[in-house]
Fold each of these.
Amino acid sequence: MKCCAAVHSILSLPFSISFTTAITTSGVKNGAWAPKPPIVIRKKRKSERGALLLSLSTRECRQRLRCGCGLQLSSLECNWEEDYEDDAFVVVNFYRFVFVKDPEGEVAKHLSFLQGLDIHGRIYLNEHGINAQYSGPFKDAIAYVKWLREDHRFSEVLFQISPALSGHAFPRLKLRYKPSLVQLEGGISHLPLLDQSMRATPLTPSQWKHRLEEVNENDEASTQNSNTNFVLLDVRNGYEWDIGHFHGAQRPNVDCFRSTSFGLSPSEVNVSDPLACVDKENTDVLMYCTGGIRCDIYSTILRQRGFKNLYTLKGGVSHYLENEGPVEWVGNLFVFDSRLSLPPSAYKPEVMTEASREQDLSKNGSFARCYICGSQLSELRHRNCANIDCNFLFLCCMSCVNDLRGCCCLRCTHATRLRPVLPGHQRYQKWHYYRDLDLQSI
């Protein structure tokens, strides 16, 4: 799925905490979706746990949803069944750059294993490795993880798991050979992705947090002498930044990762490019994205462009929130599946104390505003324009929803193909569901 075609609406997760989170509006065309009834996740009693174990080690394995610690995975020490029922739906994300001699044959092998498993998602393979995001019942999702770990090429992959409380987060399974694991203008097959020295240096979540806290402390101590040898680069899209971002990161002026061009602009000042005119030899560039793959890929481009001090957040924001919670983070995390948004509590619920909620409220309550009237909002509710030929994604107060019949502007209210205004926080189905219908009769 193209990243710019993944935006529908924001799901209000049943376990989300109710506090104002930093959000601005964004314009992305695509459809919305209708959530299924939530699945209740109950922690199993010890006597109920099965024998399905994963190869993990260290104290991280004793924490919630911890995996991929990068250590030797020879023994079966970690039991993820402590966190999920067998039939509880989860989403698994991972990628790995590794040489695959016969990617077509690898696709066939994976398809054969997944026969009979209830797995939906996007799993792409090519000569450079694998990139996967999929959903399914816990027992099926983890069976695939365990099978992959038996292959030495994937034994150290950082698998990341999060709850999918409304069932499958993807409509179907797409497992195939794909020339580019991530879409980027000009392709990525020519990039030295298998050469780790050409990619940025990965920082663990704790190292990342330390760097951000150190820089922010220096900036607060002397606003007139800020750290000019440091750039925090959000290698995502503008609408992802709108949902949530790290303090100090400039909003990317990008609607699709394919068109990312940070550091590629001419030497003259470009206000939309955080890397314009920086000292490539002495500037530390800290890059982050959702799961890490976009940063790994783009860092090879920056390395070829002469940037020396490149660092990425290992495992991306999702791994950071799981380990450190929302320290230095504002808002929720955009995800490219039907859930669309996850609060930090989805990854590390124990850190969401009353004090941290109040802190987030004071930090985030200033720019969650209605796209139409500009009024401040207390709930994170995006909607797609009722005009199917517009389908603009925007943040809107209920008063404007009612006044404009679910549309983003007065002009759209006069369109001939209008979907009905959905009550409350319901979501439209995928936009293509309405595409060929006579919407005037709906």
Amino acid sequence: MAAVQTLTLVVPPTPASYAAPAAASSSRLAPPHPSGHRALLPVGPAYANHLRLALHHAHSFSSLDKHLEKERERLAALHSADNAAEDDLGVGSEEEPEELLHRDPKEWKSQDHYAVLGLSHLRYLATPAQIKIANRKKVLKHHPDKKAAGGAAKEEINSRFLTGVNLNTNDDAFFKCIAKAHEVLTNPERRRQFDSVDPVFLEMEEDIPTAAEIKSKRLDFFTALAPAFALYARFSKTQPVPALGTSDSTKAEVEGFYDFWYNFDSWRSFEWLDKEVNEGSDSRDDKRYTEKKNKTERARRKKEDIARVRGLVDLALSLDPRIKRIKQEEKDAREAKRRAGAPGAPAKKTKAQEEEEKKAAEAAAAAAEEAEKAARAEAKKQKAAAATAAKKARRQQREAEEAAGAA
């Protein structure tokens, strides 16, 4: 702790030439006006309106009000140019249905965040700039302060009919829904979780036709299934995603399409559907149990999603008219080649000719092997004879040398 130091200050005495002022310098009172009141200066917007009323509108308040209204419209038009770029995006202007306006903000997990911000026509395609502008428009429209002002005005107008009734309820439930929708859609991770279980996507997913429906209703293969593949394409980690194509697609395009979808890598997750821990519970066991159950449910839903996409690809492969066309084209090509063969190529040999050639080749190989064996045996024999002759010559020479030595 810091120590307290005491300083001794000595104030010098007042000089002899000092004279006290007639009035205190700190006085804030001005001398009274001779007429008994202060003068008003001709300045400010009120005085400007007074001059307009007297000089340009002959003291006609209705004429002045019309002039001021036109002036406000002119200034609004000038300032609207600053927000023209935002207005051109065309977002945030959707009217909210009554059931949406009366939603409970506590049930924010089940609300359609895109519908709350007026982005139903864009949904997952909405850009961050569009989300920002849509949120701004909705906030300006549904801010509690604006509702409070509107309620006060209604209460003043109808006071003679509803005396004592407070029309200003200041209900900010939908404003809380707007805040939560903005919070979710501006967070990339949470937005991705919501897009994975988008209620509109789930409804469209249920409308994908089955094989029986396509056959019974005689639906066009490409018209029925192309939107289904486009629906799941948003979840692909690899972009762009090959489309289903047309009836004239080449073999390479068809094979590339099915190869991609049979190896489809999806980022879709299901954390949004996790159950929360019981409110007010501080038990670690409850939290661990809930997390374990959520993890199991996520894995189950992910497995079902993969199986659903694989089933769609199997369905397309079984009904694709291009597969039958490609197989027929390959069969026709093989038949044509078998009948006519390639131009300038030798005639195709029969099976008997191929067998004879095979046997002749085997016989020639056996004869060559026998000849090689005989050559090796002859060489070995000659080598042994040469060694015997050399040995005999050395023995004779040694005998001759011994006989010479004895003589």
Amino acid sequence: MRFIPANATPTGPFEGPEKLLEIWFAPSPADIPGSSGHRDGLRRVPREVWEDMLDIVKCKILSVIQGTETDAYLLSESSLFVSPHRLILKTCGTTLNLLGVPRILEIARDHASLPTVYRLFYSRKAFMFPERQLGPHRDWREEIDFLDRIFPGGAAYTIGKVNGDHWLLYITTPGEENADGGTRPNTPSERAINGVDEEADTPGLDDPPAVDLTDELSHDYTIEILMTQLSPSACSHFMTSDHIPEAEELEPTSHALALSQEIGINELFPSHLTTLDAYSFQPCGYSSNALLKWRDDAGTNPARNGEGYYTIHVTPESGWSYASFECNVPLPTRPSEQAKHIPDLKTLIRRVVNIFQPGRLTLTLFVSSEGNNNAEEDGESAVEAAQRAFKTALTMPRGKLGVSASAEPARTDGFSGVYKRTDKINYEFGGYDLAFATFELRS
């Protein structure tokens, strides 16, 4: 998932794990002053202004799809999503993600009349090659110090094994007295911090009542599947130079869309709900953004989200192979008629894992506490249900999941997909809850 000019050659290993920055300037599009719909706020910023910011970060725009609620930019190093009230910047390699923050704040103030930050999130998996990073990204402490200078009320966490697979998070929390979106970047507030490693969940086929978050209006939901040690057969699809005759020139978008169809990426969500943008890199690598209309009334009510995204990025080289999947569409924890053919969490995990066949993977579900608390009324919180779904999807043989074979891509190349869980942590933050788990493939 990197841009390499045709006359250049790769220089050493490539850092697949991304730096993920998410900045909210208001709780929803409806909270933007003078808003009249989903095309106001940050979506009014011209493309060339975003390109100016991305020059600081050291990446380029390759293409863009415009949805009813979000603009999805495919970048030379991952993705940029722009909604009226929120920006998500995800970059890999040695990009300088955090150096773009001051410019983003200027753009929001000057071009969208959004002078204050409601919430900020910055997260990443542990780097494979930290010594290759530049600027504040050379060390987690440097990244924290950089953000603290802009957001003095922020808090930083390391989740997972410090000497193994772990996930890093920096988060700011709006003060209760200004919960309407007028929060200053440095507003302090009390946080409920409760790291819990619960092991009392031996899942079976009889799941508890489904936690279906698709009926909630105001919660925020993001699932990430971060995969390493991809199987050689899975990586081979993304070795572009092996599939393009020397006399032919690669057409990056058409090749990537055909590949998406071939290996089952098009089948992750119903095609009639999905607009897919994809790009094949040369000599290797793949990126895609998709916009998903998961509500029939998407785009009609600024206070009600109805369009989400997923994004996939693949670095297939042996020795540092990596693939990431991220999605913000609320998923039920088991099949539900209310979900309008949106896959449940277990089914989606199996679909993604069967495509990339990783030796190791990290899963995170980040959900706003309101959605988590509402789910508790049905007897199980969203993060508890997610942990159960993670384990059931990955540690049980395919035939015992209650998932039909047609629900998964047919091309698995003999891949069993049976894992053992190596870590499980639930966290409560200020306004958000996290389910974190790591797995490795059973031999």
Amino acid sequence: METLCSAVVFPSFKIRTSQFSKYGSIRASLAIEQQTSQTKVALLRIGTRGSPLALAQAFETRDKLMASHPELAEEGAIQIVIIKTTGDKILSQPLADIGGKGLFTKEIDEALINGDIDIAVHSMKDVPTYLPDKTILPCNLPREDVRDAFISLSAASLADLPSGSIVGTASLRRKSQILHRYPSLNVEENFRGNVQTRLRKLSEGVVQATLLALAGLKRLNMTENVTSILSIDDMLPAVAQGAIGIACRNNDDKMAEYLASLNHEETKLAVSCERSFLETLEGSCRTPIAGYASRNVDGNCLFRGLVASPDGTSVLETSRVGPYVAEDMIQMGKDAGEELLSRAGPGFFSS
């Protein structure tokens, strides 16, 4: 286990220091927490990755816990523990080539099981459909905007990019949908790194455009970097995009109680529907899959699902409408997955 509490550096790309005021100075906050942890035993230790976005999500979790539970608002009551994951360590290869599932959660889950931390804060789209033994995930915070943002210094949208332009993304889901609609574009699929790193690469001309989750940019107060926002029709989001999940040990009633107080049920139900779809497909990290459950104007659940070939030549879509109730929504995701499995046929998911 490699646990780090280190300073975070933010490369510049139209980024103002004031954009991080929502959470204060991450570097200073971590320094204070490290100093405090030496003098007082924390009541609750939050495990997280060390990227600026992961830390923003951890601080959001901390702030909500402090606001809801007076004993956690005391100085030093909550400690944030940074854990470096496999996905953070290996940046030279595409995610699909190094295992995909669990790359950003495995070491954090191990720390949770071993008792090195008390709760684990994850981006839900990084969480495998099967949770590790001895853990539960009882809490989803209110979901952010699920859409993808288009960012470019030379074009207003994907449609405006000249033929042959390079779009950077580490997501096969984005790659397949881009190429399906704009086959004249090229996609650099090993465009990895945190938000700041990707924006720096864009500013250096490595690519002509990139797509990032709007949720992350909002949580980092970096929306001024957005050139345009893609509609759900143009780019169906990843399963659980924009949702934060918080896990604890299955025998830790106190932590489960804390997390239950933060849970946003509408988000949790939507995420459960989408993850049921993903689990049914049993999609590998080499299969582009997208899924989104939302409440429609009638108050019911509208689910949309998609699978595609990596080159975008084959895209299969389906949708379901039903009651916004846990059992119904989980079944909707399963039914949608079974339909697309049948339509895709043998070999589609192993290619």
